[in-house]
Amino acid sequence: MREFLATDASNSVAQTRSLRYCYVRENLTLGAWGPDLSGTTAQVRAQRNSPMSKKLAARERSKVIKLDLGRAHEAGQEHLSGRPIVRIHILGSMRATTYLGEDVLPRGKKARAILGYLAVAAGERVSRARLGAMLWDRTPDAQARSSFRQALHELSLAMGSLADELISADRESVKLNANLCWIDATAMLAPETTSAGSSRSELSALCTGELLEELDGITSFFDQWLLGERTRFAHQLSDLLEEELNQPTRSKADLKRQVSNVRRLIAFDPTHEGASRTLMRALAKMGERAQALREYERCRKALKRALDVEPSGETRALADAIRTFSGQEAHTSPSVRPLDGGSKVRPPLAHRRRLRLGVLPFLATRARDDQNLALSLSQEIAAGLARFRWFDVIAPASLVRRASAHVSEDLLKRKDLDYVVDGALSGNGKRFQISVRLLDVTQFACPVWSDRFELTIDELHQLDERVTARIVGRIDPVILFIEGQPRRRKNPGATGLLLRAMPLMYTMERDKYEQAGKLINRALNLDPDNAMILAWAAHWQVYHVGQGWARDPTQALAVAQRYALDAIKLDPENAEALGIYGHVCSFLEKDFDSALHYFERALRVNPNLAFVWALSALTYSYVGQPEMALQRLERHRDLTPIEPYPALFDNPYAIAYLIKRDYEQAAVYGRRVTKARPEFVNGYKPLIAALGHLGRREEAKFYVDKLLSLEPTFTVQRFGQVYPFKYASDRDHYMMGLRLAGMPETSSVGRTRPDVPLRLQVLASGEALNTPN
What we know:
The protein is globular, with a radius of gyration of 32 Å. Strands 7, 8, 9, 10, 11 and 12 form a 6-stranded mixed beta sheet that branches. The two termini are about 20 Å apart. By secondary structure, it is of the alpha/beta class. The chain is about 55% helix and about 10% strand. Strand 1 (about 85-90) and strand 2 form a beta hairpin.
C-alpha cells in the first residue's frame, strides 16, 4: 500500500554515487573516512589496483598492530580505544570496505545476511543456534548448524587478516566487534553525529535505501526479522529528524541544514504536515517563496493521493500567508486556494471505491525485544490485509502512537478510516499473549471482533502461521458481514452494492438471490471495469444456473465465463477472481488441471483467503483426492472459525466425506446444510447418497421428496453424465448411493425441457458451492 513503511525513493542515487576514503597513516579517525563525492567507482578501482597503491598497502599493513581482544573479552571489558578499521554499509546496496579500500564483503547471500545481522546487533552477542535456525529454517538442526559454520567461515575468509579482530565467536554465540567498525545505520542513529563535521541529514542523504535491501527472500523467518528491524530503524530515524525540526536557526547555514533535515523526514513520510510546514517556513525565510508554495502543492497532492484528504487549516493558512506576502494571489491555481469551512475533511464514502482499514502499531508491555516483535506483527498483519481487494490498508508506520496507549481521535478522522485493528503483546519472556481486536470507527469506536493467541518462545518461528494468518483471515469475513447489512451505508457506491448483494446470495432463497443479481448489475453499471464486481457477477451466474433458476442456461454460463475472464485480465493479481475462475474451469468445463493452476495462483497471491481454500477443496474431491480436500477445508476453518454463513461451508465437507466413503460424517454435514438452507438443491445430493450407502432408505425418503420438489427433472442417469468426476469409479460410487436411496434412474420422473440441451438441463440442477469471501 501507499502508506507502508516509507523509504527513500532515490535508491538509484546511492547506487550511482561512490565514496572515496582517505587513509591517514598517523590518524585513523572517523573524520578521515568522510564522504567525497568527487570520485567515481571506476576511479576508486583504478587507484586501488595501481602499483603505487599496492606498494602503499603493503607498507601500511606492516604498521598495523593487531589488537589483543581476547584478554579484554576475558576481563569482561569492551575494547574502547580501537579505531574503525572497516566501514560497513547496510543501507541500500550492502558494502564492506577496509581502511585500505579493500572490499571484504562476502559473495554468498547468507554470509552477507550473517554480517548484516551482526551489524544490526551492534556488538551484542547473537546465538549461533538462533541465527542458524533463522537462515536455514527448513533444514534439520544438525544440517543448519553445519551450513551456518560454512557461511561464517566464508565471512571470515572475506575479512582476511582482519577477521580475528572483527569477529568474536565461541560454541554458543558470535558477535561483530562494532567498536572497530563504522556502520552507516548506527552512525545515523547516534546521539551526536560528528563524522567530519557531517550532520545527520548529510549522512542520511548519502546513505540511502532500505536496511539490507538486497537480502529479502532468504527465508520467511529472516524476512520477518528484517521487516521489524526496518520499521524500527525508520521510526528511530524519523523521530531524530523530527526533533531537529524545532532547532533554532540563526544563520543561512542553519536554514540550509534544516531544509536538508526536513526533506529527509519528508522522504520517510510524504504526508508529514509538520515537516512540510517547517520546510515552507524555512524556504520562505530564505526568499524561496515559489519553492515554498511548490512544497505546499506537493504536500496537498501527497495527502490527497495517500489519504484522500486536504491539508489542515494550519497548513492552508501558512500557504495563504506566503502567497499574500509574495503577491502571488492572482496567479494561484484554484487547487491551492483555502477550502471553506473548518478542517474536518472527511469525504463521503461514495467518492471512494474501497473501504479504509488502519492497523495500529501493537503495544508491548516489556522491553525493546518485545516492542520489535509487536511492531513486526502489526506490520505483517497490515501486509496480509493489503492482499484483500475490499479495502485500502493504512499501515502502522502512518498511525504511530507514542508512549501513550491512546490514539488520537483526530488522527483517525484525518486518516478517514472505517475500521481499525488494534492489539497488544504481553508475556514473561518465555510465553507471549497476543490480544487483537477490530474496531468499527465510522461513527464512534465500537469493537466488533476480538481474539487472543498464545505462543511460547520456542514457537515464535510459527508466528506467521499461528497468529498473523489467523488474524488476517478472520477479519475479512467480519468486515464483509457488517458491510453487507442493508442499512449500513446511505451511499454505498459500486463496491457497497456488491457487499449488500453477497448475504442475499447466501440465503439461497430465490427472491433474495434475484435481488442480489439486480444489485450486482447496478454495481457493474456504476463501475464496469471493477475486477471484483465482475468476478462475483460470474459467481452469481454459475449458481443461478446451478439452482435451476436461469431462463437460458446456455447464455448464463457464457456470461459467467466472460465475466470471470474479464476479471482476471483486468486484475491478474486478484485472488478472488482467480479462485472463481478456477471453480468455473472445474465445475463447468471439467478442466481440472487449469482449475488447480488458478487456485494455486490465487493462494500465492493471498494465502489467507479462506474462500479459495474452500473452493479448491471441491475440485480435489472431483479428482478423487478427498484427503487433500479435507485438509483444505480445515485450513479454511482455521482461518475463519467463526463463519457468518457456516452452513454453506458444510456442503464441501459432505462431498469430501462421501468420496472418502465415510458415510456417517457425510450425513452429519449434509443434515446441517439442508436444515440451514432448505432451498439449496445441491445440499441434498451428497446427503441422499450417503444415506443410500448406509442403507437408511426410510430416512432418505424425506430428502428425496424435497429434492424432487425443488428439481423435478433430476435423474441419476443425467447426474452421472455431467457431474465433474475425473474417475469413473467415483462417479459410479456416487450414483449407486443415489439409487440405493430411491432417486429415479431415468427421466420417467419429472419432465425434461426439449428446448434446452441435456447437459445444460443437468447443469441447471448440478452441484455448486456458494461460498462467501
